[in-house]
Amino acid sequence: xxxxxxxVAAVALAPLLSVASxxxxxxxxxxxxxxxxxxxxxxxxxxxxLARVLYGGRSTMLAALFATALGIVIGGGLGLYAxxxxxxxxxxxxGLMDLMFAFPFFLLAVLIVAVMGPGLLNAAxxxxxxxxxxxxxxxxxxxxxxxxxxxxxxxxxIGSRDGRMLLRHILPNILAPVLVVGTVQLANATLAIAGLxxxxxxxxxxxxxxxxxxxxxxxxxxDSPHLMLFPGLALVLFATAANLAGDGLGQLDxxxxx
Length: 258
Fold this sequence. Notes:
By secondary structure, the protein is mainly α. It is built from 11 helices and no strands. Helix 3 packs parallel to helix 6, helix 3 packs parallel to helix 10 (226-250) and helix 7 (150-157) crosses helix 8.
């Protein structure tokens, strides 16, 4: 959590930590190694790499957060409905999610972006859609268990409406596991966003983004390794911290321990 908080704070305070522009560069100084003037060095276009990493973190983190939140809202909403009302709608949605599970995660994301067109927003939407089946199954399973509990039977007995039972009773009791899984999936979404950027389907130049920066620096891996080292290190640290934070939050929930 500390590492995650530090990375988020560094990205949020990018204008204060680096006064250089992430877009302006000097071709005469391109690919200079790290120095006192430029702590992370300069990239292939002579742009300050520290500024690019910090501002690129904004693109990657926000896109990953948006993809995770959108996946939870869509998948969780469908799972909540299917698990509570059951019937034909449940069978139809479950079959659709099984069909989506038949496609490899990243391949499905690439297919969606290929249809929608390259771009950071489209990449985030594609990652969100590919995560919908996981949240659907999780929320549906939790809702099925909660729907048969005594407090729901009591709510039915006093005449509570379905919407009130869903929002006031079931949702608060299943929200904690969903948020824990969402924190872990934030790491996967970050890697997926960066992966799409690496193959040219995510953020487009000159916008800084960690995956795109790795792609731009791979041609200079042996001559100027710092071009890939710093964005790669930032990506690994953020994904690892998010993953470990999710695991740690899971230890706070006795139901997840069981």
